[in-house]
Amino acid sequence: HETYQNEEGNWLFPDQIESFFELLQTQEQRHIFLVRTPVTPESNYRDDPKDIEKIQNAIDSLPNVTFLDYKDMVLPYSYFMDKSHLNGAGAKYFSDILAREISTILKTPY
Asked: Measured between alpha carbons, how far is 105 from 107 in angstroms, rounded to an integer?
């Protein structure tokens, strides 16, 4: 696999990203949600804004795909198992919020 490290030090796999978007294009009859989950402010995971912009532009060209970005959502530290991953209580809390938003977008009862 061709890989490169962006300015923020994250490893990207362009061929995998391209394959992923090709797959999304084959699913026009389904509404697909891509979700970026909350992380703590201390998380060492940093996105290169240019990469996010490229991904957002690609998603915007697919009318059946919605990107929900919760990376900066503030949650109590007790909802995390580490700096970047929700624990069971955090996952349950976040899942309820996510379900409500998806229900609203799809205009279906929650």
From this structure: 5
Number of residues assigned to the chain: 110
Residue 86's closest CA among 36, 49, 47, 48?
36
Both tokens assigned to 69: 């970005």
Name the token pair of 64.
């059946």
- The DSSP annotation for the chain comes to ---EE-TTS-EE-HHHHHHHHHHHHTTTTS-EEEEEPP--TT------HHHHHHHHHHHHT-TTEEEEE-TT----GGGBSSSS-B-HHHHHHHHHHHHHHHHHHHT---
pLDDT tens column, 45-89: 666 777 778 778 888 888 899 999 998 899 999 999 999 899 999
Question: Are 64 and 33 spatial neighbours (Cβ–Cβ below 8 Å)?
Answer: no
Minimal CA–CA distance to 85: which of 32, 48, 34, 44? 44
What CA–CA distance (Å, rounded) separates 77 from 94?
A: 13
